[in-house]
Amino acid sequence: MNRDVLETNWVQVREILREKFSNLSEDDIRQINGRYDQLVAKLQQKYGYSKEEAEERIRSWNFDRITGPRDATRDEKLRREDANTIRREDTARREDRVRREEDNSTLFKWLLGLGIPLLLLATYFLSSGTRTPEVTRTPTATQEQFVVETPADRAISSSLRNAFLSQPNLASELQTVQITTHNGVVTLSGSVSSREISDFMTTSAQNASGVNQVINNLQIR
């Protein structure tokens, strides 16, 4: 087969190519489109032929049915089938493109939905890191106490005060000392004249009956 037969009888040659060379895809056949050089190149690419081998195989084909009487009806049918194939492939490509765009849109929406909560969370932690710490003040003997004592707590506070009053060197100190009890936790507030007196009051309170814990807020004046 020579170049003229290929170009002038491309519709029939195309059908024979599909039969003889199954490795050629529809896209390959459309790229050849009756061009001899393209046919040689595709055979080299798909079958590993050298240029000479590809041309020899083309020349050896028997194309008597191509160069014989033309069947106009068959040619028109082949053209319609080819046009339908092209339309189907174009439709498939468009649908694939639309599907990819929808997938990308879905991914973007998902990332956006995930990003907003993360941004809010990061903003919260950043603002928390710069927040001014709260200041907790420890009540002193001159400040009003809002501790609600149960009868048992009042008994502990009263017992400790009486015990301290029985000590000659502590009687004067109690004028600036406040003793409160809440659920067995004794708080000593106010001021005393020395560290020794502060430690003595703490130890005495720890050894008292019903005391679970002692909080020493005494200041040395």
UniProtKB/TrEMBL annotation:
InterPro entries linked to this entry: BON_dom, YjbJ_sf
Keywords linked to the UniProt accession: Membrane, Transmembrane, Transmembrane helix
The protein, known as: BON domain-containing protein
One Pfam family here: BON
Keyword Transmembrane tagged: yes
UniProt domain BON: residue ranges: 152-221
Membrane-traversing stretches: 107-126
Gene3D superfamilies given in the database record: 3.30.1340.30, YjbJ
